[in-house]
Structure formats: C-alpha cells, structure tokens
Protein 1
Amino acid sequence: MAEEWQSLINEETKVKVSSTLDKSVGKKYLTDGSPETCWTSQQGTPQYIQLSFASPVIPKRVEITFQGGFVGTRCSVEVLPSGAQDGGAKWRVLTRIYPEDVNRKQTFDLMPGEPDLVDCRIEGMKFVFEESSDFFGRVTVYDLRVLGDIPS
C-alpha cells in the first residue's frame, strides 16, 4: 500500500511557521528537496510548522530530516478535519512523534490516537515541536515530506 501513497505537499500547499531565524533559513526551504537548505526557528518553545492543503488529503506518513542538535524531540501532530474552516471542526491531535537527535531522515507512520481520525480527510496539518534538543529551543528542518492519499 505504501507504494501507492503520494506526496501531499505541492506548489499549492501553503506553509506557515511559528518563527524564522532569518531569511537565509526561511520556510520555503522546508519543502524544496535540497539537502543544502533548511528552515531554522528562532529560540523558544513551542515551535510549529503548519500546512494548508488545496484540497482534502489523508495523511499516512511523515518523513522529516532535522539538523542534529536542533531536533524537535517531542512533537504533537495536529490535523484540521475537512469542513473545519467553515466553523465545523477544530484542530485535533492526530498522534505524537518522538524524533531522535540525529541528522538522518526519520520516518513516522501516522497512527491516529482516536478511531474517528483513521482515514479522516483533512485540510490542514500542524507539527508542534513542544521540546527541542537545542538548549535555546531552536529547531532546524532540512526536509519535510508528508505522504498519503488524495481522495478523488
């Protein structure tokens, strides 16, 4: 099944972050696919990365590459179910992930904590880094990929 999953982040996906250290490490570098560029937050926790999708998606896996020493070591993965922006649903915790303090790509299957979020169509996704391996709370991400299904 994983072979059928596709990247849910494309040119229409809007990216918002809690903070940026400076322009040379801005949010556009989160999804550019280059191992030479990154996003770095300012100091302090929590920090977050928020994605808004052009159409509903069903996320199944996240692949994220941090810079060792600047890893969001405790992360709440939140989702905005479809229809929420019309005043219906609200942001909900899908799951929690615990990245290691390493430089390599880390993969996390998104296993919902609540049954009604299994295969839930969402409009938004937020990675809230509640803790960082950096003493000052900074987070550096070189690459972020979200894989899953795009319902027709």
Note: The radius of gyration is 15 Å.
Protein 2
Amino acid sequence: MDTANQLASVGTFQVLKLPLGFIRVLEWLFAIFAFATCGGYSGQLRVSVDCMEKASSNLSIGIDFGYPFRLHQVAFEAPMCEAMRRERVFLAGDYSSSAEFFVTIAVFSFLYSLVATVAYIFFLNKYRENSQRPLIDFVVTVVFSFMWLVSSSAWAKALSDVKVATDPDEVQLLIPACKDPTNKCGSVLGPRWSGLNTSVVFGFLNFVLWAGNIWFVFKETSWHKGGSRLAGSAPDKQAGTFDQQPYDQGSFDQPSEYSQVGGPTSYSNQM
C-alpha cells in the first residue's frame, strides 16, 4: 500500500482528464478489443452429402477454421459415394497476411499506448522538458493512425473473402460427390460472423482515435509552441511600428522676423 500511495502521489493522474491522456487510454482499450475479436476467432460450418447409397451418406460434415485463416490448410473428410470410400478435401484461400497484419498493428498499438499513458502519468514534466519526446510521440501517432487505416481496410476486404470461401454453398462445390446430380448436398450450419465484424468496427474506431489524437499530441511539440510564439509576437511588433513621437506644436513655432514694433507708417504731404 505504501508503494502504491507513493506512486499515486508522484503521478500526475490529472492528465487522464485531458484529451491527450484520455484518448491514449481509449486507444489502449480498443486495441485489446481489436486483436481479441480477430485473433481469438474460431468458426465452424456443416454440410451434408446424401448419396444414392445411403450407407455412404454423411449428413453432418463439420469443418472447423479460425485465425489466421489459412483456409487452404483446413481439411475435412467427405464421402465419395462409392463403396463407403472417403476423400480428403481442402478449403480454398489464404487470408493470413491481412489477418496477421491487423493483429500485429493492434498488439503494437496496445503496447505503445500503454507505455505512453504511463509516461504521461509519471514523467509528464520530463516529457515536456525535452522537445524531442513530443516530436517522437507525434510521428509515432501519425504512423499508427495510417497503419490502422491500411490494416483495417485490408482486413475488411479479407473478411469478405473469408465469408465467401466458407459459405456452405461454396464449400459444396469443392466436394467431388456433390458434382454428381444423383447425390444431394446441402448446408446444415453456417459460421457466425459477429465477432469478426466487430473486429473490423474496432479497427476503424482505432483509426479515428489515433487520427483524432494527432492534434492534441501536436500541441505538445515545439512546432506548435514556436508557431504560437510567432503568432503572439506579430501583433506586438505591428503595434510597435505605429508608435510615433507625439506631435509637438511648439517645435513648429518659429520667431517672426517680420513682426512690427510700431503702428503703421503714415505718409502726409506737408506744405
């Protein structure tokens, strides 16, 4: 308890009330949701193959798949409808690159936002004293916002392809016995996509958070502070150029060399 109290007394938890710290906490939480909903996914679909020879039929073929969605490595046993024989069938497609890229960005975002939040709380003065640290924070924030946009877009496209590749109607086309019109194939159960749909939503929400936090991190940099000083000093300089000496009317009062001492001269003819 003493250690916790000392940390609490040293830390500046008021920064969490500011957009700079509050958004970092949201980024940390949303990154957890993003990689948890994508990286922890596992789904299942079921198809049926009803052969002419009923003994060879299999009315519930379970196919399990999940992250990282290397579907071309997912195999299942399907009846050949010939003398109780079975064959190994593989799904089509490999979408691991987009899924792993998305999860990797989420994990690194989680780690960086956690470190940044701790730095804001316990080392805020040192963070602001060194002008390089806010600049690094600003550049990293810009990079992560861009990477979130790219990874979320790529994962959304890959997810749509995964849905097509694992559609029970599409999987039936991979089974040779289903190409025989005398056999009947059908879908029993389709995968649930709520978790993966949520991961895409969290991905774009992370992009919004990181992009929105760019401005608040930029305000801590020397670029913004230097621009603010220049903008504040410009009106002072402009006002100073108009400060002139007051008009001294006495400086223009010159002694008159033609002042008349006496009255006007009269000319009269004396006889």
Note: Residues 263 and 269 are 19 Å apart (CA to CA).
Protein 3
Amino acid sequence: ILSQVQEVIIPIIRFTLENKLIDLFDNMYDLVDALTFRLHAISPNMWPVFELTYDLFKSDAVDFLDEMLPSLDNFMSYGTDVLKARPEYRQKVLDMYRTALTSPQLGDNDKINGCKLAESMLLNMHGHVDDQLQDIIAIAADHIDKGETASFCLANLEILINAVLYNTSAVLHFMEAYKPGLSRVFFDRWFAAINSDNKLPCVHDKKLSILALCKLLEMEGPLLHL
C-alpha cells in the first residue's frame, strides 16, 4: 500500500520542487525521507526528485542541505545499484560535497552535512567511487585545518579515514601526489584523535577508526612509511 501511496505523492513533491515553493521544502523532504526509508527502496519515479534536489541545491536552495540530507542519504543507501550504474549521479553527489565545503554562503554545520554525503557515498558504493576518490581527498585535504568547530574538524578528518577504508594504498598515494607530506599530517591528526579522551565521541567514530586501522595493517610494509 505504501508504494502505491508514494506514486500518488511523487507528482506533488515534484510540482513543489519544480516550482520552487521554498516554504514547503521542509515538508516535502520529510515526505521523501519517510517514504524512501520505510520502503527501503527508491522507485524509478523517485529519481527525478534526486535530480531536482541537486539542481535546487546548486541554485535557489543551497542553504537547504540540512533538510535534504536524510533523503539524499536514503538515495545512496537504498538506490545503490542505480548510483553504481549512473556515474553522472555520483558526480552530482561529489559536486554537492564540494559546494558544501567551499560555498561562502555556508557554515560549519552545512560543511558537516557535506561530509556526511561524501561518507555515505564511500560506505555505500565500495569499488564504484574510484573516479571521484582523488577529488574527495583533495577537498578534504584543503580543509584539514580550516574548521571553526571541533565537529567539522572530525567530520572532515573522517572523510580521509573513510577513504583509507575504501582503498588504502590508492588513498595514501593520492595524498602524497596532491601535497607531499599530507599523509604524515593526516596520520598525526588521526592518531591524536584516537589518543584523546573525547575526540572520537561516538561508537561510529571509534568503529570507523578500528576498521581503517585494520586495513592499514593489511598493507605491505614499505607503504606504511609514506
């Protein structure tokens, strides 16, 4: 029944977004989030909503990322097969991440949401983000010491930790190619967070670091001396 209800509601959502009825965006993205989460699937008719969301974020609704994020995360969690098959969709997610971190209109909270987008892509599409990996590392590297809040500094650091988990040897190579000495800076920040009492506050933070450390230990010895 819910899937049938969704097909009735989608035209209303699209009308609202296409006509930029900004006052209703909160409600529309609550609907998209609820439908995609409860169904654990993205119907073909829902993908135009993803495309509209990208277009809106890049134009009139750049400051709505907080409202968009749960729905976008659902697209990546439950629409993985489509995203794997559509490189242009993955490129849109990358562009939203880049914009969130570089737009002068956005603050640290939006940057954290941008990091959550990139993290979701790395975690949900293992083996299918190779074309975006170098750009993700460059964006995160450019912000490694630029956060105004501890929360953003951690979110940004965890993009690089997620990248290590995604493809350890490639990431360390990309780091050094982008900025010699970057991997050392990254390890210093990461290990300082691990050794601190409160810099990895959540179970997710700790689990991510443990999994990435295990990946490092699987590497050939010489690569660890980068």
Note: The chain has twelve helices and no strands.
